[in-house]
């Protein structure tokens, strides 16, 4: 059973979310503000957080920043704001997805399932390793290694902490070294749902990955952009 933490200062919204999610047999925990949310995450095993942006004491943006210092648990932001700048801000601080209020119950539950799937199973792997001397499900290019058996990424033998979304994007690109994929193709491969206007979303996640695996993210060695076409991880 998955444990989902609902963080919203509006009790009616928390109650509505519980109704939508208990049909799928999730265990629901609640927090009415950001401070209680951080405490709940320290005290419980949480598999996903639904996090409101506008809250008293500590807003959702600050909560996400604190959480990302010690956990890669998926964070789905909930907000009445639908502007691209607000969505990008949520992604920039480590959010995995952004759901606008009022939300469609079917869309909400679908995104929750998708996020949990990425976080727990991280998808299947084809037997297409770069080096025949490597174990199956281990991908390498230069000093960058993705071990899908252990769900770990390392650069020059140093472990790198990625979110579930970042991990899946990198894995998809490392499965297909030197192949260029558009933002739409990356989104549909990782999220497993149709993509609509996702270029900014993907660019934010790509930037986060570069910040973690590249010595100089502005001059990337591994994760390259092919202007006008998309992104690729180069074969070294």
Automatic annotation (TrEMBL):
OmpR/PhoB-type domain boundaries: 136-235
Modified positions (4-aspartylphosphate) in chain numbering: 52
Domain named Response regulatory: residues: 3-116
GO cellular component, as recorded: cytosol; protein-DNA complex
UniProt xrefs under SUPFAM superfamilies: CheY-like
Highest taxon, organism lineage: Bacteria
Keywords (A to Z) from UniProt: DNA-binding, Phosphoprotein, Transcription, Transcription regulation, Two-component regulatory system
DNA-binding region: 136-235
MF terms (GO), sorted A to Z: phosphorelay response regulator activity; transcription cis-regulatory region binding
Cleaved signal peptide residues: none
Keyword NADP: no
Function text: May play the central regulatory role in sporulation. It may be an element of the effector pathway responsible for the activation of sporulation genes in response to nutritional stress. Spo0A may act in concert with spo0H (a sigma factor) to control the expression of some genes that are critical to the sporulation process.
Name assigned to this protein: Stage 0 sporulation protein A homolog
Organism the protein comes from: Clostridium botulinum
């Amino acid at each position: 059973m998955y444990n989902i933490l609902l963080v919203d200062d509006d009790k009616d919204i928390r109650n509505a979310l519980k109704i939508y999610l208990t049909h799928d047999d999730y265990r629901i925990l609640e927090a009415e503000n950001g401070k209680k949310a951080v405490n709940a995450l320290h005290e419980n095993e949480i598999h996903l957080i639904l996090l409101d942006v506008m809250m008293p004491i500590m807003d959702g943006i600050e909560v996400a920043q604190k959480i990302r210092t010690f956990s890669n648990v998926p964070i789905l932001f909930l907000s009445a704001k639908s502007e691209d700048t607000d969505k990008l801000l949520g992604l920039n601080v480590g959010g995995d997805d952004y759901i606008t209020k009022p939300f469609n119950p079917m869309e909400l539950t679908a995104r929750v399932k998708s996020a949990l799937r990425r976080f727990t199973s991280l998808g299947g792997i084809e037997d297409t390793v770069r080096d025949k001397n490597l174990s199956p499900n281990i991908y390498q290019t230069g000093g960058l290694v993705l071990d899908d058996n252990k769900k770990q990424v390392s650069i020059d033998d140093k472990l790198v902490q990625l979110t579930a979304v970042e991990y899946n994007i990198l894995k998809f690109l490392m499965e297909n070294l030197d192949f260029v994929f558009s933002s739409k193709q990356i989104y549909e491969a990782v999220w497993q749902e149709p993509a609509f206007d996702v270029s900014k979303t993907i660019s934010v996640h790509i930037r986060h990955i570069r910040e973690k695996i590249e010595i100089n993210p502005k001059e990337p060695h591994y994760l390259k952009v092919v202007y006008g076409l998309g992104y690729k991880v180069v074969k070294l």
